[in-house]
């Protein structure tokens, strides 16, 4: 059988022509790309493949920016907390920061643009009460309150692009490669230079078919410490888009002036976990509209030269919110992003208003993974298997890899495995794309960000795990490859428009006071009333961790009446808690051998039942970790946490079906084995059995009429069958 080709992008580099041709054939690639630190030979560009060329809009042009250092990109940073022990306090505000990455901005008057805050009293210190020593980078407060804590919010220039810095250090580029200095599109010389340089690039690179913008203007917030290690990283942070010019333009557009504190945010820098303030949401909107307008100018230039414009969903992606209201205006042909798992795959694949999407799979071909003694195939298998679940629901249009192909080529086992992956991807794509898969439920993920951050909840640095989030990120990872339709709604959506009428279940998951749980939003009577009515009339509500949590009017979980549980915070210890009996059998735990072995991740302490109607499914150490509760015609379900695993995928899906009162439909297109998933495509007349493990798995399969058949799948096998 002739090998299929296409839909795969291969990285290449100098002096690697023969090997590139070999892998182009073996992996069936139809596009070739360069990467940060690599270039393509002219002979490679002449191969029968589309040529992607990485293009840095706002860096990699030091010859220009060194002549206009006043236009370097900026950040607002906050000093460490400093305690005054007398009426005079000197603060070394640069302490803990990496001076090769940032330098203080003294061009703009600190008395106007900086802010000193008494954090103990939560007051701003009058600018006449402090002075700066520019030689020592210190600030001295002359009339401090003894034993109050103080911080300085200060402007800096970002003199080294953080992604290039990471690549520089990881690959040990040394002094031979200069530090890229990023410049600001809002500034006049930089704005003109970006357009002129792109035109020159298009003219000088006739063999480039796709300009791969990496990305546009403003890098997500990534600041390093004095040891050149990451100090603060927020993949969604807008900190690197600030400047006096931006603040002045914001004031002219929005009608009020921002403070440094609106960006610094007590040192939290408005991470996606913080419930966003009106000022911050206004700023995100302001920057997004500006970026869309400026990015469109560059995309139009690319189109003038008959080339495609592709955006990398990473690095300098801030302001290009792909689910935001301005994204369509940019006019991009494609978006490519890094795939860490199912959730990030769907984050890319579901992006609207582009001709095609592409996922860059892991591992990246860098020496931190491809070194003697390591097997990069292990990471590749895990990455592919996890993301494949999401591909079965909505595949990206292309897949690819990045980095140094010469490193990957040294690992024959890895090369062989990727050959299997690319073949499997094309088979999946040909069946799944454009075909509506069987969907048993529609669920709405409810948080403060809503649609704007679709598939992006509980992320810090893209798909990297953190202690406080894996218990919640499991919800998205599970949903990414499940037979459910997923939408993302905000609290404002519910308040203004109500719960969508076609939604079966609402999910609220997160720690208290975070944007994902909701914090003070739960004080709003309109919000809680709308959701109560939705559940009472037959809807489902699934809460994970500290859902609806905000101490108010005798409740901590504001929908405790729906969930049937609340959290003891020490205020109600005088009230006895009688309801501790665990039910013997339940639909949600039907596939669980031992409920006491369930994995709730970081879990949650001190959850107790409100009444005898609460069905307790897991109870240990005097607290509930899993329960269900009737509410009118609907149901609430509580989980203390839900990390991603095969066991938890089955548990969570059962919880959703139970909350929706659709238990009878659960065995439609289902498997008795939690490690095998069934994906049906009625329009195509086919279904797929997918083994998500590296071992042989037997199972009883239930089709669309819940009729049984016995199968045994090989490790990682996908078996296609006719309906």
Automatic annotation (TrEMBL):
Enzyme category, top tier: transferase
Q: Which domain of life is it from?
A: Bacteria
Q: Which UniProt keywords apply?
A: Glycosyltransferase, Transferase
Name the chain's protein: 1,3-beta-galactosyl-N-acetylhexosamine phosphorylase
Domain Lacto-N-biose phosphorylase C-terminal span(s) in chain numbering: 669-721
Checking NCBIfam families in the record gives:
1,3-beta-galactosyl-N-acetylhexosamine phosphorylase (TIGR02336)
UniProt domain Lacto-N-biose phosphorylase-like N-terminal TIM barrel: residue ranges? 6-439
- Transferase as a keyword of this entry, yes or no, is yes
Is Glycosyltransferase tagged as a keyword?
A: yes
User: Which EC numbers characterise this protein's activity in its record?
Assistant: 2.4.1.211
Q: What gene is it encoded by? A: gnpA
Q: Which residues form the Lacto-N-biose phosphorylase central domain?
A: 442-663
Q: Which GO terms describe its molecular function?
A: 1,3-beta-galactosyl-N-acetylhexosamine phosphorylase activity
Q: Which InterPro entries match?
A: Class_I_gatase-like, Glyco_hydro_b, Ig-like_fold, Lact_bio_phlase-like_N, Lacto-N-biose_phosphorylase, LBP_C, LBP_M
């Amino acid at each position: 059988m002739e090998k299929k080709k296409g839909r795969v992008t291969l990285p290449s580099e100098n002096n690697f022509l023969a090997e590139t041709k070999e892998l182009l054939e073996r992996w069936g690639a139809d596009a070739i790309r360069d990467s940060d630190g690599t270039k393509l030979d002219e002979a490679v560009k002449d191969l029968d493949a589309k040529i992607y060329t990485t293009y840095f809009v706002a860096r990699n042009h030091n010859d220009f920016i060194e002549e206009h250092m006043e236009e370097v990109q900026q950040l607002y940073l906050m000093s460490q907390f400093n305690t005054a022990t007398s009426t005079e306090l000197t603060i070394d505000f640069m302490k803990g920061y990496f001076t090769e990455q940032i330098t203080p901005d003294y061009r703009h008057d600190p008395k106007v643009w900086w802010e000193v805050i008494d954090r103990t009293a939560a007051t701003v210190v009058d600018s006449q009460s402090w002075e700066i020593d520019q030689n020592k980078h210190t600030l001295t407060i002359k009339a401090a309150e003894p034993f109050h804590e103080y911080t300085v919010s200060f402007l800096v220039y970002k003199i080294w692009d953080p992604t290039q810095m990471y690549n520089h250090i990881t690959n040990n580029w040394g002094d031979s490669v200069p530090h890229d200095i990023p410049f600001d599109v809002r500034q006049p010389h930089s704005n003109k230079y970006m357009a002129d340089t792109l035109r020159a690039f298009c003219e000088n690179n006739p063999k480039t078919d796709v300009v791969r913008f990496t990305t546009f203007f403003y890098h997500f917030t990534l600041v390093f410490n004095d040891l050149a290690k990451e100090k603060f990283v927020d993949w969604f942070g807008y900190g690197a888009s600030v400047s006096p010019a931006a603040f002045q333009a914001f004031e002219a557009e929005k009608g009020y002036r921002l403070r440094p504190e609106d960006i610094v945010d007590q040192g939290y820098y408005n991470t996606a976990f913080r419930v966003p303030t009106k000022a911050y949401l206004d700023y995100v909107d302001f920057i997004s509209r500006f970026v869309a307008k400026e990015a469109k100018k560059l995309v139009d230039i690319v189109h003038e030269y008959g080339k495609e414009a592709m955006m990398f969903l990473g690095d300098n992606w801030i302001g290009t919110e792909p689910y935001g209201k301005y994204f369509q205006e940019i006019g991009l042909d494609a978006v490519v992003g890094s795939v860490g798992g199912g959730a990030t795959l769907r984050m890319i694949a579901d992006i609207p208003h582009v001709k095609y999407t592409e996922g860059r799979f892991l591992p990246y071909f860098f020496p931190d993974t491809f070194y003697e003694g390591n097997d990069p195939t292990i990471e590749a298998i895990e990455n592919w298997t996890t993301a494949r679940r999401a591909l079965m629901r909505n595949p990206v249009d292309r897949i690819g890899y990045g980095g140094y192909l010469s490193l990957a080529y040294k690992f024959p086992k890895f090369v062989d495995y990727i050959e299997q992956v690319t073949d499997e991807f094309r088979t999946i794509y040909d069946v799944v794309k454009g075909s509506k898969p069987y969907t048993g439920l529609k669920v709405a993920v409810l948080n403060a960000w809503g649609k704007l951050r679709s598939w992006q909840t509980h992320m810090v640095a893209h798909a990297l795990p953190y202690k406080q989030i894996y218990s919640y990120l499991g919800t998205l990872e599970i949903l990414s490859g499940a037979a459910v339709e997923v939408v993302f709604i905000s609290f404002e959506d519910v308040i203004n428009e109500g719960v969508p009428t076609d939604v079966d279940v609402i999910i609220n998951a997160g720690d208290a006071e975070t944007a994902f749980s909701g914090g003070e939003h739960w004080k709003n009577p309109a919000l809680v009333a709308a959701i109560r009515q939705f559940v009472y009339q037959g809807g489902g509500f699934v809460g994970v961790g500290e859902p609806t949590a905000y101490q108010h009017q005798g409740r901590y979980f504001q929908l405790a009446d729906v969930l049937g549980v609340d959290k003891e915070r020490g205020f109600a210890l005088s009230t006895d808690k009688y309801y501790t009996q665990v039910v013997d059998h339940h639909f949600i735990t039907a596939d669980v051998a031992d409920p006491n072995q369930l994995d709730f991740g970081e879990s949650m302490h001190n959850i107790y039942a409100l009444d005898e109607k609460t069905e307790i499914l897991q109870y240990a150490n005097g607290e509930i970790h899993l329960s269900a509760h009737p509410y009118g015609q609907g149901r609430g379900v509580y989980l203390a946490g839900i990390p991603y695993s095969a066991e938890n995928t089955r548990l969570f899906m059962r919880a959703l079906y139970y909350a929706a009162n659709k238990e009878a439909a659960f065995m439609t297109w289902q498997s008795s084995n939690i490690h095998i998933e069934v994906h049906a495509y009625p329009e195509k007349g086919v279904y797929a059995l997918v083994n998500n493990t590296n071992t042989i798995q037997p199972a009883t399969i239930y089709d669309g009429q819940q009729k049984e058949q016995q199968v045994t799948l090989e490790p990682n096998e996908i078996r296609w069958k006719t309906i």
